[in-house]
Amino acid sequence: MTGNVVKIAYHSDLKEVQSDGQLARLLSAACQHAPFDRLEWWLMLEAHCGLRPMLAVARDGNNAAVLPLTAQSGHPTALSNWYTFRFRPILSGDPALLTALARDLARKSQRVTLSGVPDEDGSATLLETAFRSAGWLVLREVCDTNHILAVAGRDYEAFIAGRPGKLRTTLKRKSGKVETQVLTHFDDAVWAAYEDIYAESWKPEEGSPDFLRAFARAEGDAGRLRLGIALAGGEAIAAQMWTVEGGTAFIHKLAHREAARPLSPGSVLTAALFRQVIDTDKVDLVDFGTGNDPYKRDWMEQVRPRFRLVMMRPMAPQNWPVLAKAGLRYLAARAKRG
To answer: Which superkingdom is the protein from (predicted)?
Structure first.
């Protein structure tokens, strides 16, 4: 850090952040090339998913560290939910700002839990180091998986040639029976079809349809939306929502009507979207979000862990039961290995 005094602030009103030029730019699409790292995303989580923000910010001159939190569970947790692929701190400048933030958070709470943290970019290690340096005890464990495809210069035909034989056979047999369209803008009629398809799919009830619609519309306005629809006999039978930015395609939602399963419309539509993002959008990476669904392995080639970090003040009595359980799990795992 520079010689400037570090200033710590906690924002429960995100409009304050919108009106702060430095922070607003740091948390905008101009600087952050994934939706989950942006102020707009957190505003929609607040508006449509009922999450109450507590944006923790440390600043030193023109440098800043931002930890998007919510405190509605009784102790601070990540400002994220099931729509969020991964959670990480936003940092411009010296990582010591994150340590200063962690030190100040001890005044707010005796425990902080952050889930879905990646470490391919060093985020989990950075957070663990910062909180340990600030006197917190940190428990770190894998909590989820993230399937990805590194395109590695391939075109669509080269990519599809490397898929499992069963999938390639399905695409060859079914593609002529299903018509696909990929829109790069938001369309009310197509979105209504998506919602109707989702209601007849194998998927659980949508957590927040309003959030998803608002996000799709905003991404369409920004030119980042890839909205796919599959039809048979004029009927919409599958739909998917992807977004593209910063060289990455994010697969957010996919669904097909159960009655249409014999036509494999989901696979055919997924292939059409892969063709779009690989050959037209020229992405370097395709991110299939979290979850270890077997079908993801047909399309993806790598798996990355997502971590849960539980930070605790070791002398706080309310943390002792958590520490005891963690100790028992460690001993049980050690005994199993031994």
So the answer is: Bacteria
Residue 195 sits at φ, ψ, to 5 deg, of -65, -35
| 1 in a structural domain | no
| Domain total of the chain | 2
Q: How many residues does the chain have?
A: 338
- As averages over each run of 10 residues, the pLDDT of the chain (338 residues) reads 80 94 96 98 96 96 95 87 97 94 94 97 98 96 97 98 97 97 98 96 90 98 98 97 98 96 97 98 97 94 97 81 75 74
- Identify the helix (H) or strand (E) that includes residue 231: strand 225-232
Distances (CA, A) of 17 to 92, 288, 290: 16, 30, 29
Burial of 276 (0-12, 13-18, 19+ CB in 10 A): buried
246, 30 contact by CB (below 8 A): no
Residue 93: the pLDDT is 87
Question: In terms of domains, do 90 and 218 share one?
Answer: no
Rounded distance, CA 313 to CA 320, Å?
A: 10
